[in-house]
Amino acid sequence: MKSLAAVAVLSITLAACVTAPSPSEYRAPQPTKTIDLDRLWSGRWHEIARLPDRLTDGCVAGASIYTPAGGDRIEVRDTCQVGTPDGKEKAIGGQGRILDPGMNAKLRVRYLHGLVTWDYWVLDRADDYSWFISADPTFERLFIYTRDIPDPAEVRALTDRARSLGYDVSRLEYPAQPAP
Q1: Which of 9, 28, 35, 105 has its CA 20 to 30 A from that of 42?
Q2: What's the CATH number of domain 2-171, 2.60.40.10, 2.40.128.20, 3.30.460.20, 3.40.50.720?
Q3: From CA 126, how far away is CA 131, in angstroms rounded?
Q4: What are the residue boundaries of the structural domains of the chain, listed by start?
């Protein structure tokens, strides 16, 4: 029985460490643009840049694949290749829910049957939905996504946009991408 109790305590502790923040912890700017569910929260997005995170160590050619699941629900599959764009795939799936229906810019994703929960806020996006910048509300995670692999000038422009949102872009990682 003691080992079962220890596992339960460890699970609760782990969940607390990776659960979405409370509103008092929010530091990131608020989203300002309404999101068309069918244009942003669907299809494959390439992860062009991110702040370091132990969960993405060794990951390159990252992508998030969103699939509308009805109403405010979004299926999420985060994937990357290990080491090189041709490396072994590493992926995790989650169940997402829009937290701000109508605006549609805040998505809460529960991974591993709710053991891990992250909030993603779309802080900016292109008018044509060719890119978006998302972050968690605590300033600890930042991601730059594009539909297509961008050229270096586009990457610089997106990095500048993230800087203008208040992020320390000197820490951004730019993982290798698949050939266009």
Answers
A1: 28
A2: 2.40.128.20
A3: 5
A4: 2-171
DSSP label of 148 = S
Q: How far apart are the C-alpha atoms of 168 and 86, rounded to whole Å?
A: 30
Per-residue pLDDT at 17:
45
Residue 111, beta-bridge partner list: 94, 116
Nearest Cα to Cα of residue 170 among 154, 155, 158, 159: 159
Q: What is the pLDDT of residues 163-172, one digit of tens each?
A: 999 898 999 9
**Comparing C-alpha atoms, which of 127, 143, 136 is closest to residue 59?**
143
pTM over 0.90: no
> Residue written as tokens 């509300």?
137
